[in-house]
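Progress narrative, Year 2. Work on DNA-binding response regulator, NarL/FixJ family, contains REC and HTH domains from Sinosporangium album advanced from sequence curation to structure prediction during this period.
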Amino acid sequence: MPVHSTRIVIAEDDPLLREGLALLLRAESLDVVATAADPDGLLAAVDAHEPDVAIVDVRMPPTHTDEGIAAAVEARRRHPGLAVLVLSAYVEQAFATDLLAQGSARLGYLLKERVGRVQEFLAALRRVVEGGTAIDPEVIAQLLTRTRSDYRLERLSPRELNVLALMAEGLGNAAIAEKLFVTPGAVHKHIRSIFAKLDLAPTDRTDRRVAAVLRYLDERGSRPRR
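Result:
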């Protein structure tokens, strides 16, 4: 199917990015049939419009963790022919693996910085629509990297390491914020980023805060022996 005849749904909770992306695609004579700000809106738009491709942000309300991935997986389950192009601010290996578990045909996973490189972005969209795969080179590199835990702390920024160290001391968000002279909201944002960079996807079986602290202690050689 020629890319110019495709029907597109965009799911992105940031209104500026959502509308900017829609304007970009429409300027290229592409048919954006609907936009959505949350997973429910995405699924409703896909059901109503039966688009050829959905462009989906990984992190969406209400928790801004993996809702976009979960909605993309569900959309492909409901509409097996749907192409999906996922956008993420940075590589989230666990989420990429979840999506790729369905198969790589008609699937793309790009870092958001690629959107600014318009021709690269349009080429990736075209490959996905035509039944191929468009995976960001950085995503591929990290998916192929050894996943030993001692590499993971290196992904964290100095401030994120500070937050994790204070978590390991048993401090809550408010106490961490007071220690670091930042707002509790900033601490919450750092912790979300820590979970993502340590590949700690939401699960009913594991408390991610505890898992992050255990990984920190293990890599620092101070995890208690059993």
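Residues 149-219 form a domain with the Arc Repressor Mutant, subunit A fold (CATH 1.10.10.10). The longest strand covers residues 31-36.
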